[in-house]
Structures are given as structure tokens and as C-alpha cells.
Amino acid sequence: MKKVLLIISIIIFYLLGLAVLAFYMYLELAPRVNMDERDRIILLFLLALFCYLGTILLSKFLKNNKPMKIYLYGIFIIYIITLIQLTLFDSDYGRSGLNIFDWSKENLEVYLENNNLIPFKTITLYILRQDRVAIINLLGNLVAFAPMGLFLPLLFKKQTKLQNFILTNIAIILAIESLQFLSLSGHFDIDDLILNLLGALIIYGLYKIKKINLIINKIFLIKKV
Question: Is the Cβ–Cβ distance between 185 and 95 less than 8 Å?
């Protein structure tokens, strides 16, 4: 009887997760619907929560942590897709997608004029302004790559080393910035790189604290060798 209830609970949680995912995709693709960041965060949180609960029960049923590893990879992939969508395709942030065929001298000049290669220039400007847009940009760039501080060391052993972690994040950030350049979508700002990396390092630093590390490993059924 307990096994039957366990299986039913697993199915229910996964079905709820699929329902949230389907609703999220509908809102993303519906032409007359425009989700804000709060809506995205709420729906993605619910998706992660339902799938996590289903995965915990499935791991208990199978008596191993393989489902949890698959869950972590799945959530990581969803995070990467969301990150790409926000940085390349979200019109609310002035993104126009991969319009690689729209190159022209005029567009390139406008793109280059908006670039910033001076460290802390934009950050200082936002701090002095202290308005809603400035705060959203500062916090947004910090939060955008913060999950990397958890996902990378959890999923890839080599990423537990600080040097590897920093180099990987810089490579990912520069890859996204390069795609923005190729599509002339957004603009390159060295301060974005600094804030993105700082956000990832903050979470990475918290993860490396022994007590927090033990709690996280317990939550995600990570067995230390």
C-alpha cells in the first residue's frame, strides 16, 4: 500500500510540473501575452519545486540518487535556456534576437557607440542615480549568473576549484556577449561581466561554506566520496 501511494504521489508531482511547464511555454509563445520577470520566476520556481518533490520520492522508491542527478541537469538546462532567452530575445531589455542578416554600417556604429570598456563606469553611474531602472540593472546582472555558483560545482567536479569556476563563467559570459555582438542585440559592457561574475562568486562562496555545503548536498542527495 505504501509503495502504491508513493508511486501515485510521484506521478502527481510530475504531472503538476508538466502542467506548469506547459503553461509557461504557452505564455512565452502566445503573441498577445507578455510575461514580466516576476511571472517567470514564480512559474519556474513552481516547476522546479514540483519536479524536485517528485524526484525526491522517486529516488526514495528506487533507493538511489540517479533521478536527482537527472533533475539537476534538467533544471540547469532550463536555466541556460531562460538565460539565453533573456539576454538575446527579450524585447523588454532591448533584445532583438539573432538578426545576423541585419548588419549594416549604421547599425554597427550605433552598437559600438553604446559599448563600455571602462570598468565600474556603468556601476558608478547606476549607484549615483539610485532610481528603479538603476537598481533593476544592478540586481539583475548580479542575479542572472548567481545560479552558476550552485549548478556548476554541484554538477561538475572540476568546477569546485575556484580557478576553473571563474574561467568557465568568464567564457560563458563572453560567449553570450559575442552572440549579442553578432546579432547587434544589446551592447557590450565590461561592468555586466563584472556583476555577472560577482553574482556567481557570491553563491559559489556560500556553497563552499562547510555547513551550507552539507545542507545543500543533503537536499540534493549528493554523496561525498
Answer: yes
What's the grid cell of residue 162? 575556484
Question: Would you list the DSSP string of the chain?
Answer: -HHHHHHHHHHHHHHHHHHHHHHHHHHHH-TT----HHHHHHHHHHHHHHHHHHHHHHHHHHTSSHHHHHHHHHHHHHHHHHHHIIIII-GGGT-----TT---HHHHHHHHHT-B-STTHHHHHHHHH-SHHHHHHHHHHHHHTTTHHHHHHHH-GGGGSHHHHHHHHHHHHHHHHHHHHHHT-S--BHHHHHHHHHHHHHHHHHHHSHHHHHHHHHHTTPPP-
**pTM listed for this prediction:** 0.85
Residue 115 neighbours by CB distance under 10 Å: 13
Walk along the chain (225 residues) and give the pLDDT tens digit of each residue.
Answer: 788 999 999 999 999 999 999 999 888 787 777 777 788 889 999 999 999 999 999 999 999 999 999 999 999 999 998 888 878 776 555 555 555 555 566 666 666 677 788 899 989 988 888 788 788 888 989 999 999 999 999 999 999 999 999 999 999 998 888 777 777 676 778 999 999 999 999 999 999 999 999 999 999 988 765
Give whole-number Cα distances, 203 to 49, 94, 146, 213, in Å: 20, 28, 6, 11
